[in-house]
Records
---
Amino acid sequence: MTDKTIAVIGGGAIGGITAAYLSKAGYDVELVVKHKEKAERAQKEGLHITGVRGDHYMKVKAVADVEQLSGKKDIVLIVTKAYDMPDAARRALPFLKDDSVVVSMQNGICIEALGDIVGAQRSVGCVIGWGSTMMPDGTLHMTSEGDFVIGGLLPDKDVSGLKEVMDHMMTTRISANIIADLYSKMIVNSCITSLGVLSGLYLGQIMRYRRAREIFIGIIAEAVAVADAMKLRIEPYGGKLDYYRLIKGEGAAADFRRHLMIRIIGYKYRRLKSSSLQSLQRGKPTEVDYYNGYIAKKGAELGVKTPVNTRIVEMIKEIEAKKRPIDPANFEDEELKRILGR
C-alpha cells in the first residue's frame, strides 16, 4: 500500500534520508527544507546520500515552508530539533486529516507537547536507532544501520499502518510503552550529549575522565529515581544498556563494575561527537531542556531531588550565554563535586 500521502518536516540528515527512501518506495512524499534553493536541488539533482548504504543521489519533492505543502497528509513526520517541534506542529495543523498520524522524531521526550497541539489521538513517538550526519557541503551521510521504535501517545492506538510505511526506510518495532523507550534514549543523551557540551570532547576522550564517569552515573541514578516516581519501567537502551543493573550495588566492587561498563561504552562509540555541541558550534542552542531539563522538571513535579541534572542544565545555560567556556575543567565544577560527595 503506497497510496498514503506523507510530509517530512525537517531536511536534516534523518529527515532527508527518510524522505528519500520513502519516496523511492513509491509514496507521495513532500520534504520541507528551510531554503528554496535546497528544495529545488532536492527535486532536480536529488539529495546526495552517502555512507553505509552506498553513494546515491535520490530525488524527492520538496518545499521551503510548511505552508507550501500540497493538500492534506495521512502521515506527518516532524524531524526538527526539539525546541522547533511545537512551531512545526502548529504550522502543520491545516494539512491534517481527522485520522492523520503525526510523528515526533526528536531526541528527548516531545510527544506530550505534540499531543497538546495536534491531539493525543494523532500523536506518535519514535525512537531513532540509526545514525546519520549532515556534512558541511549538505551531503547526508548515513553512519549506521539500526531501527525505528514507534508507539502512540494513547497506548491503544493502532500504528501498524505506520510501521508498514516506516519499514521501507528501516526495520520498525511497535512499542507497548513508547514513553519508556523514549525515556531510555533520553538518559543516554542526557549523559553523552551534555558531557560533550561541557567538555568539547569526543565520547572516547570524555570517558577517560573518572570525574566524567561519576557524573554519568549520577545522571542515570537520578533519572531512574524519577522514572520510579513516574511508575515507569525503563527499557534497556538498545536492548543492552540496563540502567538498573548499572546503578545496582554499593562498595568498591560495584563501583569498579560501573566504571568498567562506562569505559566499554566510551570505547565502542569513541568517535561520537555531541549533537548539542555541534549545534552550539553552528550558533544554535542545545536541547538540554529536553534531556537533563526533563529529568529535573519531572523530579520537581514528583518530589524527587535531581541536583546533578539541575546543575548540568545551569552550566550548559551558562555556556549558551557565553558566561562559561567549553572545557574539560567543567567536570571539576565545585558544585558538582559537592553534590557527588567527592
Note: The chain has a mean pLDDT of 93.
---
Amino acid sequence: MKAQSVDVKQAAGKILCSTVFRACGKKLLAKGRLIREEDVELLRSEGMTQVWVTELEEGEIGEDEAAMRIAAEVGCGSLEIRPAPGGKANLVAAENCCVLVDEDLLRQVNCISGAAVATLANFTYAAAGQRVAVVKSTPFAVPRQDLEAVVAILRERGPVLQARPIRNPVVAVLYTDPISADKARQLFDGVMRQRLERFGASVSLSLASTEQPRALVRSLEHLLRARPTVVLVASTTAPAGPSDAVGWAMVEAGCRIERFMAPVEPGSLLLLGYKDDIPVVAAPGCWRSTKPNVLDLLLCPLLARYRLSGWEIAGLGHGGLLE
C-alpha cells in the first residue's frame, strides 16, 4: 500500500491517508475513510484541490473490515460490537456483567501482526453501556494472511473475552460472632451493603449467629435452602483454617472446600467452599472497611454465577497487593 497525492476529483474510491481539517481547525474527514463522491464535493467546497490517498492492494483487507471481523470472534456473551473510525471496533457491555479474560490467548493474539486487542482486566465489573474491549487494526489495511491467522486462532481457542451477565443475584449473608449474634450485623451491615452496591447487588436475606458449631450449621443450611447466588460469611474473628468453627460448619453443611488462603492483601485468610454450585465465602477482616480487598476481586465473578477455582485464586498473586 503506497500513499500518493492526487487531485480531489480523482479521490473517490480511494482511502484517505491523513485527517482533513476545515480552515477553522475542525475535523472535516478522518484518515482511513473510504472517500465517496459526496466527500469529493465536500472537499472541493472547502477549496481543497489535492489530498493524500492510498488504495488496497491484492491480498489486503481494509482496516474497518479487519477490525470488525476480529471483533466478531474476540468476545461472547452480553456484548454489542460498535464500529469506530480509524480501523477500530468497540465491544460494549449490553447489560451489567463480569468481564472474563483468557489472558494467555489475549497475549497470543496480540503477538500476531495486523491488530491489537485491549480489554478490561479479568473479573472486572462492567455496567451496561461500558466499553469492555477495543480492537484496533494496523492503519489503512491488514494483510489477508495476518487477518486469517488471528481469526483462525480465535475460532480454535477463543473467545478471548466473555461478558457474563449479572442478573438479579440473590445474596445471602451470615453474620457471626463468638458471643453476640447481632454484633457482627451491627459492625458490618453498612459496609456489606456499600460493597455490594458496587456490583449492582444488595443483601437479599441474612441471618446472625453465634460461632457455636451447631448454630452455624443450622444457619448455613437455612440460607442454602433458599438457593442463593452466593453466601457471604461476615465473622468478627479470623479463621485458623478450614477446621475452625466457620470452616467446620461449612463442611458439615455439605460444602466442599475449594480454597483456603488467597495471595491477596488484604484478604489472605479467604475461605471459599461450594455447596453444589453455590459458593460460600468467608473473608475475615474484609467487612470492616470499604477499602479494596480480596472481595473486590471475587464478588463480581461469583455474582455472575461463574465458578471460581482454587487455581484461579492462586493466580491472583500478580497484582494481589492491594494496599
Note: The mean pLDDT is 92.
---
Amino acid sequence: MSKKLIDLVHISKSFDGAAVLDDLNLYIRENEFLTLLGPSGCGKTTTLRLIGGFDTPDQGQVIFDGKDITSLSPNQRQVNTVFQKYALFPHMTIAENIAFGLKIRKKSKQYIQDKIKYALKLVNLDGFEGRSVDSLSGGQQQRIAIARAIVNEPKVLLLDEPLGALDLKLRQDMQYELIRLKNELGITFIYVTHDQEEALTMSDTIVVMNQGYIQQIGTPEDIYNEPSNAFVADFIGESNIIDGIMVKDRLVELLGVTLPCVDEGFGQQKPVDVVIRPEDVELVDPSNGQLAGEVTSLIFKGVHWEIDVMANGFEWLVHTTQMHPVGSHVGIHIDPFNIQIMHKPESSDERAVETDE
C-alpha cells in the first residue's frame, strides 16, 4: 500500500463568520486519484485551496510528506493547480505558456524545449508549440493547462472542476486522458467535482462532502453499493429512499408491508431510512409482487427503460430492460440483499461519522 503523502489534521475554515470546514481530517496517499465530491458550498474547493496554499486554515495543519506546510505559499509547495478557467496567457504561444513556470525557475533553454516537447506528446498535442491559445478548442486548451502544470514535475496535481466547461463527449474523452496521464506520470491527483459520474469513472478514492463535513470515504464501488447514509445514497446515483421501521434484525417495514433484509443491529421498532437502487427493483406479475402498483411514466434511456411506478402511495423509480407501458399493473419484488438500511439523522445537518480507510 502506498504511503501517506498529504495529511489534513483538524482543519477548520470560516469565511465571514460562516464555517465552511469544521474539524476536517483527511489523508491522501502517494499516486492516488482522490476525488472530493459534493454539492456547491460543501467545502470541496476550499479543501483543495488549502492544500494548494491559496487559503490558510483558521485551525489545523496541512502536512506534506511528513512536513508541516500550513503557512507555506503556493510556489513553495510541490503541487500545481489546474482550474476550470484554464488561465492561459492569450498573448503567448503554446510553447511560451507551457514554459512559463520553468522560466521563472531559471531552467536552461534546452531543458525547457525538451520539457515542452515531452508535455505536448503526453497530452497528444505534438507540434502545437507555435500555435496561439485562441486557435485551440476548449478541450485543447484544457490539455495545454495540464501540460503547463506537469512540466514543473509536481508531486501532486490539483484539479478544480477542470472539465466543467467542456461538452459531454469531450468531457468523457478527457476523463480517460486524465486516468492515462495519472498512470503514466505516477503523481497524485486531487480532483474536485460535483459530477457523480465523473467521480465514479476516474477515482481510486472518493470523499463525499456535505456542509463542511466528510460523509463517506471509499472506493467508487463502496460509495455506490454501500452508501453510509441517505445523503450519500441520494447524491451518488439515483435511489428510492423510503421511511421505514426496523421491526427486528433482518426484517423491515415500509409502506405498510414487511420485507426481509440482511441488516442487523438497528434495534427493534426503530425508524430508519430504507435505500433501494432503481436497478434493484424487479417488476413482476402483480400476483407475485411484494407490492403492487401502476406504471405512471416511461422513458427510454438507450440501455434501459426508466419507469415510475406508483405503489402503496410511493412513486418508485425503476430501471429495467423490460418495457411496461404507462397504465399497466405490475408487481414489485426486491431481493433482501438489495435493501439497504440506514440510521435516520437526528437533524438535517447532523455531522456524519468520519470514516477511515
Note: Residues 4-225 form a domain with the Rossmann fold fold (CATH 3.40.50.300).
